[in-house]
Amino acid sequence: MELWNIYDKERVKIDKTIKRGDEFPENEFHLVVHICIFNSDGEMLIQQRQPFKEGWTNMWDITVGGSAVVGETSSKAAERELFEEIGYRADLSGERPFFTINFRTGFDDYYLIEKNVDISKLKLQYEEVQNVKWSGKEEILKMIDDSSFIPYYSSLIGMLFEMRNHRGADRV
């Protein structure tokens, strides 16, 4: 059973939790994280979901993602998800998300990392991930078009690739 902290619309944690799968009351939200690892060639590390994983079976996805559990900060959840899903350790304690997307039941923090990860040394979580590979933006967009990649908006994928080297309006 996975428990999540609940936040108000201002992202202030309230003294309440919810169990994964339970219905969210109105104006209560939870925290989700996505982490995208890019290499120095400008490719993103993507993962293929297991055929028995509920939702988006066998489809490719960005590096990792998941919900923060009770007591986790955004950066701690991102560190845990990276290690759980692909066996990669990262210290994100000094990092803020590059951006946050609000969705109906929560806040989705995106972390963008540039690191030349040796994918042959990753330990994939059997319950979730069957494969990983490096992929360029055009290949991911083509995979979205042919329904082998989770159907993110093309503009989001473009933004991930564009923002990987800078934050917000900073173009340094």
Describe this structure in words.
This protein is an alpha+beta fold and 172 residues long. The chain has a single domain (3-163), classed as Alpha-Beta Complex (Nucleoside Triphosphate Pyrophosphohydrolase), CATH 3.90.79.10. It has three helices and nine strands, in the order ββββββαβββαα. The protein has a four-stranded mixed sheet, sandwiched between helices. Strands 5-4-9 form a three-stranded antiparallel sheet, covered by helices on one side. A two-stranded antiparallel ribbon has the order 1-2. Strand 7 (99-103) and strand 8 form a beta hairpin. Helix 2 (137-145) packs antiparallel against helix 3 (154-163). It is globular, with a radius of gyration of 16 Å. The model has no long low-confidence stretch (mean pLDDT 95).
